[in-house]
Amino acid sequence: MKRTHNLCRKVWISCPRISKRSLSSSSSLTSRRSFSSTSTAEEQDVGKASGFGSGTHAKFAHVPETSKKPHESLATCAFRVADRPGALEEALKVFWKYDVNMTHIESRPAQGSGFDYSFVVDFERPDTEDVHQKLIDELGKTALDVTHLDPRVVPWFPRKQSDLDLCIKTLDAGADLESDHPGFNDQEYRKRRQMICDLNASYKTGTEIPRWEYTADETATWGAVYRKLQSLFPKYACKQYNYILPLLEKNCGYAPDNIPQLEDISQFLRECTGFQLRPVSGLLSARDFLNGLAFRTFFSTQYIRHHSMPLYTPEPDICHELMGHAPMFADPDFAEFSHNVGLASLGASDDDIQRLATCYWFSVEFGICRENGEKKAYGAGLLSSFGELEYSCSPDRPAGGTDDMPEYREWDPSAAARQEYPITTYQPIYYVSDSLESAKDRMLEFCDSIHRPFSVRYHPYSNHITVDRAVLKLEKEASE
Predict the structure, then answer these.
(1) Is 307 noted as a catalytic residue in this protein?
(2) Nearest-angstrom CA–CA distance, 218 and 213
(3) Domain residue ranges in the chain
(4) What is the pLDDT of residues 285-326, one digit of tens each?
(5) Catalytic residue among 57, 132, 320, 339
(6) Which member of 104, 181, 306, 325 is catalytic?
(7) 177, 187, 338, 388: most buried by Cβ count inside 10 Å?
(8) Catalytic status, residue 385
């Protein structure tokens, strides 16, 4: 039997939509394909004839009833076609007839069926179940073994900006202090910290970030940190940071005698890279925190460390957030780096979330890049810690109060994702990239290797996410 070119290779088409305009010829479809040698676990055992996943299998598959929630607006079917010219086009013209857009097509040789090929098609569910059933019935007259596939079950993830209102459950810090915290016995400090946490917990998407009036002690604490770090930045901070910090001083009120407001910084970042800040009451789960980055949103605390120890904090505070993180989000490469990590986290497995969070630790928190042969910090954990900033970047010893020298490794996200790290001491290992742009490119490659049964697309103007496959998200509580 003569093989036709269109059906002899595995095809994986993934695009925003494949409409009837794309079906003028079968070659117009195959020209938009990308190739993959893997398939999702859900799709490997659908049936001997089709070769795809679990679902309703029949010559004319019955379409299950659905309430058509937003995350269920796509449907999936599998079918088999004979290996002859025009066979795939005939099947896909059924979608054209009912004016239904396809979002993903995947193919492979059918199991045990000679030269036939099986296809999985994800498509936008018609407005009514009657039209949906007619489409499936007619597809069954053109193709073989039509199968309706169940949605792929994935962990909950936000699909629109306002969904981040559900990602604010704190795990630690906030108003609850450990007994060894410098402010544990200071009731006034704890009272003010509780007020800030309550204020942040009530924040909703689309509203102005609450402004907080800091006391003289709090401002003095900020000033002590600011002046100490300011003396080190020219020598140890990356060039992007040293370019942006003066802009924040000019536009957002950064100064030793003034703690800037999150709302002012957020507006500045939106104009630079589209990133924004969102107040939070304490430490979040890795999944919730990374999911926020997918919407170019950084969760930031507003409380400050205790004034008795201005150069020490046992948890992230506003000095860490605004001196370490916020400036770098104004840099396009760093912003894209962070955004890609966030997009890769949506619907990812728990293991992949852990790998992404570990990469985040060794880059966004403790990343180093080279400039003219010298090591410069771009990670917030370094830029907000005068001791570790010197320790990590200075070639001389002692540095940061110690004679110890850390180990430096080339930035490799695949290796960094498996590396353990301490959280209460200086880091013994740092990953160094040739440049911030190089760090971003390597991270993007790693993010592309994260396996999910669907792809995502971010729409910046409406600030929402679309997916190309039919997925069923677990309830938020079940995913935690």
Answers:
(1) no
(2) 10
(3) 5-150, 171-479
(4) 999 999 999 999 999 999 999 999 998 898 999 999 999 999
(5) 320
(6) 325
(7) 338
(8) no
